[in-house]
């Protein structure tokens, strides 16, 4: 009895491994690991002696979020300069350090760590390998050989807050966060400030699901909010946010008048503009592309911290927003944007 | 009906398993309408032979003839087609189904696409009436007794048109009354022209029931005789291969001091019913007190209560005057109680432990097996070697897993262990269940020997013969009470039977003798 | 039957060897189907594992927690319990170690041992809860320990986020130097790979696992209860207490695994979005190793080695992680399916056996 049971168990473990692999997104199949991008961009071959590495966090390279954006940035670099690019996925926190080292010890010209979780691993690897060049997204590592890139998420969130505030009919707006951490807090704070600027009496309900990879939790949180009369939800919850979209799509089919505001990328491309009001785009792709190309061009940004915000066009609304957001509101958004860039409005971060 | 015609002939059947010849050129003939017993000890090859006849095994050599025609039985389906039915020792019934549903299973009468239950019930009723197998077709299997379930198995074979019925150890699970009824049923079947094979190792039943006996020992036919021209004694010797004494040498002996005294013991059972309802008795040094009764009348609970394996709700247990009521099993054991449990696989042994490890099951904590918290394996093995030798436990070694031992040798190992503790009181519950004659003889001898050495022995058994042979006094248990006591020597079978059935008036016998 | 068994026992090295080979072959087919070169991939795997002191060291670092969780599962299994809550006990072990490591300030010879013991006891107590529920209320330990996994995750997130958090971060303050159990000379020797005392403790735990279960009276009780609780009761053992004890010890092993991830590898604890999976991998390791001490060690090496080396397949041969998982999955599948491999080997083994007979 027991033997059969344990055998079955191992079988299940093994099958899960295989099946999870089969079920995984195969979008990147052609170029997995190495980049064989065939975009019809004429390469100037300036980067053919450069090898660029990138390490993802546990989300993996197909996370439809910043890991994927970053990889797209590198793919663009390859297309333009013939630089060799390669990525490794981390299976857990403990993997990040050896993964970074894999590139560093192979003598890569630049190694990216994508996400705030890389702080410690990056700090350590940078100290141990002073000759290596490293770059990190969403975190600040103070080392002469690390380029740190962060974003003013609060500024972009302020703008989508303005959109939400002007478009809500129920005066109830929702915010679904991933984990209750400083980065996401910045999203919340900016968003709330934006809403308050245009519709002081609107109420913003906040729910932190505690996870970036649990669409079921996102769906649940969205359902609760919509039931309570919320008509627009802004999510900053990575994969958990996919659940928010799912719930919205279901309700939209039944005629409900509700919206979702996406995050990181233009999520209307993924989930359709029937439910996606707009998105708070974060220019991870732009940033990765820029820092990498600068390196190839001879302008290594080591030791610097770049906070990219509205003025760099690194956060903001996608052009597709005009589909669902009326022009007068977009004009208002543009107005607020200028005020932030000029420093007239100071967006809070917490 | 021509009785001289053979229903089944097996000629020179040989079946080998790796490292073992289970059947060695066996010749066997079953005449039409006869009851033929296949007698042999556990592992002699009876079941293998019948599984060959029923198509579950293929013989390596030899021929099978059924009704005068040579045939190959490649599976149970073919066997059924040839009119062979088998009543297995472990029933193969669907518990939540009704009797009729079980009987017609796999061969249901249909009306359109639906099973015609009315017709099924009708058919079952007519067969059961014809063979005197009274059973209600519409009752569910889980609600009927084991004896009834066996009838359903028999009906199943008859429904499928069996002319030859094989019974595998049919009485192993039955009560005394049920055995009598079964014997009647089998006789009826034979009278109706069915040919019957009974696989058994019980001599009494063979003599009472069979026309012919084929004795098998170690895969070979020793002899085929008719029951008219043989005796229990002779069959036993053929089966075991040497002289066997049934009568245990037991001299009369004046018992000594009271060792165990149980007073008004009560225990809660399931569903608010009391499992024990004030049981009072005692056992003295140098006597064997037997507890008789039909299974399930509180015997197991009584023993659990005495040994501390389950807590009692009232009354007291004393050993040599020391109060042991609701003590832990270890305290009871250390106080001087040895216990040969009812189920040697469930309680008596850890089957996946080595024989050696099993020998210290109740005494591993004693300092002689290590003082520092580590087990002194050498001391353990020394004890095992000594006991294996002294009690003649047949094993390939003391480091063999207990699981690999035969039932008889497992039981010997338990007895060796429990007697080695030099207990004042030895409790033996069903000590010979499932053992063959040689082993039974040995167990009985050991128990009497312990009694003669002055130990108090409490024996629980469902086999009256065993109680008669061993006990000095017999107490009868019924529904958690003792119905009374009888002197083993001057007993009255009739009276004992009535007491076991719960007849109070029969129990007008003195209780207290100690 | 007996002779067959003998042959198989003699080929106890052959069978797992062939199993790994079969798994690699199936993996190779999967890679070929996806258009990747399996030879390069396998070369990269080995290269990743053995090419440099750093990689050897990091592979050992990856294997170490699996030894702990493997023992934890195997120990419980040997005593008749299915501890599926190793994950949670691992997390509690981490939390215990972090609490002591971050909040206290003691000399190293007290601080480090105290952190280790606290973490281990946290894990043990966490497991003992499931044992206690089973012993007193008959709650199936599989269900309760799965539930406790979640409670452990959120409880330790709460503890870290509330009491230990480093301002502006989602992780604890760093553990004091005095509590860290890294081995600096070995780290230098292994080219900065994260080496720590946990690996040696893990080996000691393997020995403890063996001695405790098979050499002590305590272990005799634990195994007896595991194999046959009825017989254990009959033999005068306290079955309920033994169940709690057994879960506690299993949890100790799991907790130790977590302790060394904190004190040896990270030096801080993060607020975790999900548990790391070492506990569940421990189940696979224990079953791969047949719940034997040496088996668990080998199972952990196989599982951890494959996991760590698989990065090499992505790096060196461009095999995507999905396909790498198929390869790992098939190796585990075949190693676990002893029966299948034996069946596959049967004709070969029989021939060999008969030849040997002829030779005699």
UniProtKB/TrEMBL annotation, chain A:
Any one of the GO CC terms: plasma membrane
Mind telling me which PROSITE patterns this protein's record contains?
Answer: PROKAR_LIPOPROTEIN
Q: Where in the cell is it found?
A: Cell membrane
The text of the family note is: Belongs to the BMP lipoprotein family.
Please provide the record's keywords in A-Z order: Cell membrane, Lipoprotein, Membrane, Signal
UniProt-recorded name of the protein? Nucleoside-binding protein
The residues that cross the membrane are none
Q: Which domain of life is it from?
A: Bacteria
Where is the ABC transporter substrate-binding protein PnrA-like domain positioned along the sequence? 53-349
SUPFAM superfamilies per UniProt: Periplasmic binding protein-like I
The primary site where this protein sits is: membrane
A matching Pfam family: Bmp
Cleaved signal peptide residues: 1-23
InterPro entries attached to this UniProt entry: BMP_lipoprotein, Peripla_BP_I, PnrA-like
Automatic annotation (TrEMBL), chain B:
Instruction: Name where it's found.
Output: Cell membrane
**Cell membrane is among the record's keywords:** yes
Name the GO cellular-component terms. plasma membrane
Keywords of the record, alphabetical order, are:
ATP-binding, Cell membrane, Membrane, Nucleotide-binding, Repeat, Translocase, Transport
Alphabetized CDD domains for the sequence: ABC_Carb_Monos_I, ABC_Carb_Monos_II
Identification of the protein by name: Nucleoside ABC transporter ATP-binding protein
Could you name the domain of life of the organism this protein comes from?
Answer: Bacteria
GO MF annotations in UniProt = ATP binding; ATP hydrolysis activity
Q: Which organism is it from?
A: Paenibacillus prosopidis
Domain ABC transporter: from-to ranges: 8-243, 260-504
The entry's family comment says: Belongs to the ABC transporter superfamily.
Query: What is the recorded membrane topology of this protein?
Result: Peripheral membrane protein
UniProtKB/TrEMBL annotation, chain C:
This entry carries the following GO cellular component terms, namely: plasma membrane
What superkingdom does the record give?
Bacteria
Q: Look up the signal peptide feature and give its range.
A: none
Q: Name one GO molecular function term.
A: transmembrane transporter activity
Task: From the Swiss-Prot or TrEMBL record, give the protein name.
Answer: Nucleoside ABC transporter membrane protein
Q: Name one Pfam family in it.
A: BPD_transp_2
Q: Which keywords does this chain's UniProt record carry?
A: Cell membrane, Membrane, Transmembrane, Transmembrane helix
- Where is it located? Cell membrane
